[in-house]
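Hi support team,

I've been running sequence recovery on a batch of backbones for a student project. Most finish fine, but this one hangs at about 90% for roughly twenty minutes before it completes. I'm not sure whether the input is malformed or the queue is just slow. I've pasted the structure tokens below so you can try to reproduce it. Let me know if you need the job ID as well.

Thanks,
M.K.
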């Protein structure tokens, strides 16, 4: 019987995979993609559009795009012989594809030209050395950033073969919750940005687009082709979304509107907790959740649905007893009727939160809980989980390739198998029952999921269990109040805003836990990001469990081990300096390893440093500053606005007291200049413009701006407008040239400031060491060698 069942399941899985795989080869689209043909297609949107998050490529940001998954329902191919447009034939098909829509700046913005001037008032040339200062907190250790694990076969961006952008965290874009989904698209062509119109598309909407087909670069994904849509035109709607999707969109839009007035972290996180809308979550918050293994709270998970169902039906163990709890028995609803009502809620949950893989995983886990509530039999949960997984894989074989689906199943299995026994064992040793249950659940899920997470991130979190325990107490109230705000939004927005305000407090608590845990110097350790590394971590986990069972008998040993772990995570600076020798005593200049970019730190006292440029990656520059023990930054100097010098600015500002920002007056590229102003304005940090002749001091450190001159003609590019500094500290004289090109360096040597340059001790070569050094500099330095500064 068991063998027959296994064979039947295998046959069903093979048939389902074959049928789904045939969709990728059916119709004319795959052949047209192999020929890179330009076509006009009618596409039905199947998921909420997502905007990619641009990443730094060289000295600029790659253009952002909007990713839209859909199914081609009809394709119109231009005839090869150049016949009239009316002679083209519409081929009906049903082929999954991914549309990539250009969401970069408009041509007007790109051609507007550079803007001179900057935020704030320029200091008077030669102005007296103004003292700067500040305070703050946060220390740590620098180092290279591990791979974050955008799996090449799993992400939309990987399937497209590039574009230089990373998709934003899973979940829907802002359009998924537009207050008027059907009408907002028509208005988009009348002045609204095209990207907003694309992001406003709801699933089941039909659009007509013209673009160039291409095959997916990475095989094994659920798309047959990629359709690149060029230009800035809004989509042409040929079919409105279904009534269910319009209603779901109205609910999602109401929740977004209700959360508009919350603090930034709560405003970003709450829609993700409730309906899976993670479009507001920024890179820094996302990374904090990944570092602490709290990423499952960034979007909808099975626990969210479990909480709502448990409120309706009560605890699983009392489901079949007379004393069962929850509002359902109080309203006189029978057990069977309660289960049916729970099924309706689950179905509505899938519709509102979209049937994406993450939501389907949540629904499957919720279905397991629903079965427990209906039967009250714990022993039936494992077969129920297996059945749910089997049905989901048969429904969508591509889930078998999803790391998220694997993690969800592993975590649920750990909660059903390991956690109960561990909870009982802790209870026998005097741990309070509720504390034992929470601790066992967090430890079991972490033990089982950590090897898979290590494959994705090449890192093991040391703060995952405590962070999950602290976040768990806020997850239920945030979820319940968030769902209440979701339901109230279409009826009474003031009530929804009040509920969202209440839900914002626990949501903010969860975000604060993630940020605090990620900011700890020893929050995680690097680990081999391979399946061999996963096997090694699994062996280590088993060994820790075996040793831990013996250690719990000796409280003092447990206390000593806990203290050692705390010291390893917190890494007090005095102790770290003694053990590692970093930072060296009396350090004056540090060049941070930020990859292809610049970030220089000048010591200005204990825990204080002036930062010149921020590099391309916030995480890398943040770790560098934490490793140096810098908690106060009296001034951040951004030599120019190329992304490899300014994109890491959030990492410099993270958890530190920053006195002011100073930039060049040549605000180009304009998008990066606007980014710097937004970051400064969000934190109330003044921005000034550097002008040659300005002098400043912070502690024993002093510096003078040598370039650009106050009344210089427009430079040929951002590099030639770089701020050049002459720095003096502890008897050393250092020259920092930014990215000045050789002609601008020669021009600097012809200014009166050239007399100050002779005999400098340290020359930081311009442009990451790539730019040739004019011969004139060789006689003005004290000797030594120069080269590429990256990695120093």
């Amino acid at each position: 019987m068991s063998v027959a069942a296994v064979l039947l399941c295998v046959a069903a899985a093979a048939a389902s995979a074959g049928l789904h795989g045939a969709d990728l080869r059916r119709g004319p689209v795959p052949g047209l993609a192999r020929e890179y043909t330009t076509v006009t297609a009618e596409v039905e949107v199947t998921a909420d559009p997502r905007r990619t998050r641009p990443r730094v490529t060289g000295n600029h940001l790659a253009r952002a795009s909007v990713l839209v998954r859909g199914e081609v329902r009809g394709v119109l191919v231009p005839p090869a012989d150049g016949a009239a447009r009316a002679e083209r034939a519409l081929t009906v098909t049903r082929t999954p594809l991914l549309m990539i829509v250009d969401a970069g700046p408009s041509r007007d913005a790109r051609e507007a030209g550079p803007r001179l001037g900057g935020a704030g008032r320029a200091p008077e040339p030669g102005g007296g050395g103004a003292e700067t200062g500040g305070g703050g907190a946060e220390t740590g250790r620098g180092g290279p950033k591990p791979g974050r694990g955008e799996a090449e076969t799993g992400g939309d961006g990987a399937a497209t073969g590039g574009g230089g952008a990373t998709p934003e965290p899973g979940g829907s874009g802002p359009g998924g919750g537009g207050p008027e989904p059907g009408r907002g698209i028509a208005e988009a062509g009348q002045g609204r940005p095209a990207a907003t119109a694309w992001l406003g598309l709801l699933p089941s909407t039909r659009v007509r687009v013209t673009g160039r087909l291409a095959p997916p670069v990475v095989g094994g994904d659920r798309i047959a082709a990629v359709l690149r849509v060029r230009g800035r035109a809004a989509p042409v709607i040929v079919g409105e979304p279904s009534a269910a999707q319009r209603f779901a969109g109205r609910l999602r839009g109401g929740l977004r509107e209700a959360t508009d007035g919350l603090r930034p972290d709560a405003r970003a996180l709450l829609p993700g907790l409730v309906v899976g809308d993670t479009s507001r979550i920024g890179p820094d918050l996302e990374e904090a959740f990944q570092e602490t293994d709290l990423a499952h709270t960034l979007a909808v998970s099975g626990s969210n649905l479990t909480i709502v169902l448990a409120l309706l039906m009560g605890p699983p163990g009392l489901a079949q007893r007379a004393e069962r709890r929850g509002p359902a028995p109080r309203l006189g609803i029978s057990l069977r009727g309660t289960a049916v009502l729970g099924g309706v809620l689950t179905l509505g949950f899938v519709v509102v939160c979209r049937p994406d893989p993450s939501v389907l995983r949540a629904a499957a886990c919720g279905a397991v809980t629903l079965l427990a509530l209906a039967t009250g039999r714990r022993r039936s949960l494992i077969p129920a989980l297996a059945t749910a997984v089997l049905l989901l894989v048969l429904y969508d074989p591509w889930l078998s390739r999803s790391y998220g689906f694997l993690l969800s199943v592993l975590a649920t299995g750990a909660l059903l198998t390991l956690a109960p026994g561990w909870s009982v064992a802790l209870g026998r040793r005097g741990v309070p029952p509720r504390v034992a249950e929470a601790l066992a659940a967090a430890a079991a899920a972490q033990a089982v999921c950590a090897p898979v997470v290590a494959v994705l991130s090449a890192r093991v979190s040391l703060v995952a269990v405590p962070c999950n325990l602290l976040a768990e107490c806020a997850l239920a109230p945030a979820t319940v109040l968030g769902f209440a705000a979701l339901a109230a939004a279409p009826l009474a927005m003031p009530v929804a805003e009040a509920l969202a305000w209440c839900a914002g407090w626990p949501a903010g608590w969860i975000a604060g836990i993630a940020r605090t845990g990620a900011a700890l110097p020893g929050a995680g350790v690097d680990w081999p990001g391979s399946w061999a590394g996963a096997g090694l971590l699994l062996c280590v986990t088993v060994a820790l469990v075996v040793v831990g069972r013996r250690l719990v008998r000796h409280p003092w040993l447990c206390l000593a081990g806990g203290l050692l772990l705390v010291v390893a995570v917190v890494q007090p600076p005095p102790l770290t300096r003694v053990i590692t020798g970093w930072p060296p005593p009396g350090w004056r200049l540090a060049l941070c390893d930020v990859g292809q970019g610049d970030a220089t730190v000048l010591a200005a006292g204990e825990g204080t440093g002036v930062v010149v440029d921020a590099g391309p990656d916030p995480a890398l520059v943040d770790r560098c500053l934490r490793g140096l023990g810098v908690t106060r930054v009296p001034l951040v100097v951004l030599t120019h606005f190329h992304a490899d010098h300014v994109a890491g600015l959030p990492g410099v500002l993270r958890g530190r007291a920053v006195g002011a920002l100073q930039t060049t007056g040549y605000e180009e590229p304009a998008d990066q200049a606007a980014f710097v102003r937004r970051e400064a304005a969000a934190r109330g940090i003044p921005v000034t413009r550097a002008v040659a002749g300005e002098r400043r001091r912070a502690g024993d450190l002093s510096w003078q701006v040598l370039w650009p001159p106050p009344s210089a003609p427009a430079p040929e590019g951002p590099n030639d407008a770089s701020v050049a500094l002459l720095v003096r500290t502890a008897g050393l004289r250092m020259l920092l040239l930014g990215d000045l090109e050789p002609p601008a360096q020669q021009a600097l040597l012809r200014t009166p400031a050239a007399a100050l340059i002779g005999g400098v001790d340290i020359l930081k070569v311009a442009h990451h060491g790539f730019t040739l050094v004019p011969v004139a500099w060789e006689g003005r330095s004290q000797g030594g060698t120069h080269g590429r500064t990256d990695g120093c």
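--
Follow-up from support: It reproduced on our side and the slowdown came from queue contention, not your input. The radius of gyration is 29 Å. No action needed from you.
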